[in-house]
Amino acid sequence: MLEERDLYFHKLKLTFETALKLRGGPSLVFAHSMGNNVFRYFLEWLKLEIAPKHYIQWLDEHIHAYFAVGAPLLGSTEAVRAALSGTTFGLPVSEGTARLMFNAFGSSLWLMPFSKYCKADNIYWKHFFEGKVCCPHRQQCDEAEYTSEYSGWPTDLVIIEVPSVRDMGAYPSIMDITENITSSMECGKPTLLSFSAREVSDGTLFKTIEDYDPQIKALVYQLEKYYQGDPVLNPLTPWERPPIKNVFCIYGIDSKTEVGYYFAPSGKPYPDNWIITDIIYEFEGSLLSRSGNSVSGKPNNSSGDGTVSYNSLSWCKNWLGPKVNITRAPQAEHDGSDLQTVMNIDHHHGQDILPNMTRSPHVKYITYYEDAESLPGWRTAVWELDKANHRNIVRMPVLMRELWLEMWHDMHPESKSKFVTKAFRGPLRNEDCRWDYAKARCGFPEHCEYRYIFGDVHLGMSCRLKNTSTNLLQQYL
């Protein structure tokens, strides 16, 4: 398996080097969801493959910018659901079948949630133990892990009900249940056990329920061999900022996102032996449960993107410097009148940044957090898009527009500002022009005009740019 991994990353390294030779310039890395985990592992692998003094030089020459989109930087609670009960993702299969599929993939545990307070030994194992079998990356947790609650997450990730009678499995046959219902189950109430993110990532959860779910031993084996014992990186540890010149962290916020589960035995055979009895959600700064019961915890300031919780997505705010500029603008094209900006906000590592800005109802915003101070030659920015769904964010026109403008700005020899200005977002394509029904004309009349072409099926399609977007682009330098 290690040889296959090395072969894959050697090909990826060669791809960057070939692109540099053919294009004459560095590449852009655009990673979505678990693709960010793959890229992180590649960077750690690369650090061991080339001389340390050449590592930063190689990155500077081959990668201009890294766009981390919807990155589960502290994992995702949905991975726990998929491991114990199954997540179909809309596929026409049962949850039990989906669980079998998920647990059969070696990469599934890569998405498991973990504590922001626990790190692994940072040793270049390959340089010192080449060809030898070495010990796992020992997990070391800060005191905050034990003095604070929930491992930095909004609540306990898993609360699971186990039988009080040890010889009663999680998936007995129907006859076993009938025979024992009076003799065993009446004598004791089930026990509720709660598990934090640390207890999920270090295997405590899975080891605890081995007696009730023997098949879970395969997950424990994978966790210990391919994650805790990985020779390059234990990926279930907090990220540091990649040493790349330009890093942009982009994600959606304020969607209803699952952050915790209640499980109980179902009385059915594996893989349907666990059922979800309740789900805890975060939604716009509060916690709520599917059942309506009260929830204990510390909600995040915002909620996640529908798949990954806010604390995991926003971990990259720790990559920002000590001073941050914050700008909030409508996602739609605008003239800058609704722009809100706060400059040089103090940023303390480990603490979220809360912009003191207003929101108009029914308006979706994009909030930019950009370095005001950073290391020379480095830039870091975080973009939060209201209501952007985890799986659909890569298809959002507003994201494609911002990415294009940022790269056009970076490549232009006359660019003056550190980041693209947000003061104006005019139409750059015919598709950006729209019909303003309130004024019975095309929106942005200084840039768009009504020009019907055969085949247009609605008024908006007949709104087109008056001229090319060349002049408009000068505003973004």
UniProtKB/TrEMBL annotation:
Domain of life, per UniProt, equals: Eukaryota
Q: Name one Pfam family in it.
A: LCAT
Q: What name does this protein carry?
A: Phospholipid--sterol O-acyltransferase
Source organism per UniProt: Urochloa decumbens
Phylogenetic lineage = Eukaryota, Viridiplantae, Streptophyta, Embryophyta, Tracheophyta
